[in-house]
Amino acid sequence: MPDEGLALDTKFRLSGLLHSNMFLCSNSSKVERGFPGTGDALTSLAEGGEKITAIHLFSVKKIQSFSPVRADEIFRMVTKISGFASSDNKVVNLSKMVMAFGSTLICRIAFGKRYDDKGSEMRRFDELLHEAQLLWVDKLTGLIDRLETAFKNFDSFYQELIDEHLDPSRAKMMDGDGDILDILIQLKEHKSCSIDFNWDNIKALLMNIFIGASDTSAVSIIWTMTALIKAPKVMKKVQAEIRDLIGKKGKVDEDDLPKLLYLKAVIKETFRLYPPAPLLVPRETMERCILEGYEIQPKTVVYINAWAIARDPEYWKNPDEFLPDKFLNHNIDIKGQDFELIPFGSGRRICPGIFMGLTNVELVVANFLYSFDWELPPDIRAQYVDTDVLPGLAMHKKNPLLLLPNKIREEDEESEKAGCIPIGGRTTAR
């Protein structure tokens, strides 16, 4: 099947639904008038957009340049959680906190702005993000007027950001080439890409980044913590790996991640059970082809259900159970080479932000597990923690994840190293 899939990859292209706005609108003429990043602008962008994102926006070098911003936001979040751990009311709405982290991180990386958590600008950003998640429902239910209004709001938001970045007196918030919008403006002004890059193209790419990057990492972090709180033995095992490696350094750095093999297994299993987007970006056939004996005609839009593939009992034993250890014995990756697990897609159209997304998820989860021992509130049992999903582009957990963070004590650290597990203030041998 992999050989057949690679051969078919050359016969498929990203459809007219390539970008998030086009994906939601499906070439609606009304919406084209509402948001100029559709129509011809999207068609031209589809040809060169992949190279722009892969080479200029999400290259390994560029992702590394975001490290100080990522580390700062994780530090702020861990500090805030520590405040809850030290207070009488220890319950943390981890869903809300991680979603705020995702929004703030993408604002800093893409736009060079850090909004106050409770300020009006952050509320506006969150409202736009929430609206974007529901737009596909509007298309299905025929609420085109709401869709038009939403795209006009997006257009105004992006234009404000562009105007700010064009102001010569503006101080850059990031070193080097600046944030992502700075880079896109440079590409347009210097005509240094293979397509006729214009403001509509830039807005369309911002739409992709806005929707694709704001939610997916945060959603995956929440699902990972949900799975771990329902599997305490797995949580203890991955915590032991992290704490043995990091010791008393105080935090997990990006350089530590390649050594945390069990953490990577946990993240893979989370992506298998809870892919951030259950349906991959649609493809369109460029020519007639045969797939599993079925004849597919040209210009057929193809949807790939990554969620169903990852739970197929033909490929997975006990497919609905959270069992990360399977990845310690099998060389299955999530970077598009093993088609039984493709949360980021595969081939030439794989998600260009895959490495940034993985780094975000691994680093946040590692620091959560290193810094705190996590428990459920007293009135909630692990088996009753729900895994229901909200409608939308990303697989948001329907009900917020509420957890109790406890700061790890030095005596607990020493007990773990001695082969004991701290339980309720005392230690017992393993």
UniProtKB/TrEMBL annotation:
<keyword id="KW-1133">Transmembrane helix</keyword>
<dbReference type="InterPro" id="IPR001128">
    <property type="entry name" value="Cyt_P450"/>
</dbReference>
<keyword id="KW-0472">Membrane</keyword>
<keyword id="KW-0812">Transmembrane</keyword>
<dbReference type="InterPro" id="IPR017972">
    <property type="entry name" value="Cyt_P450_CS"/>
</dbReference>
<keyword id="KW-0479">Metal-binding</keyword>
<keyword id="KW-0349">Heme</keyword>
<dbReference type="InterPro" id="IPR036396">
    <property type="entry name" value="Cyt_P450_sf"/>
</dbReference>
<dbReference type="Pfam" id="PF00067">
    <property type="entry name" value="p450"/>
</dbReference>
<keyword id="KW-0560">Oxidoreductase</keyword>
<dbReference type="InterPro" id="IPR002401">
    <property type="entry name" value="Cyt_P450_E_grp-I"/>
</dbReference>
<comment type="similarity">
    <text>Belongs to the cytochrome P450 family.</text>
</comment>
<keyword id="KW-0408">Iron</keyword>
<keyword id="KW-0503">Monooxygenase</keyword>
<protein>
    <submittedName>
        <fullName>Uncharacterized protein</fullName>
    </submittedName>
</protein>
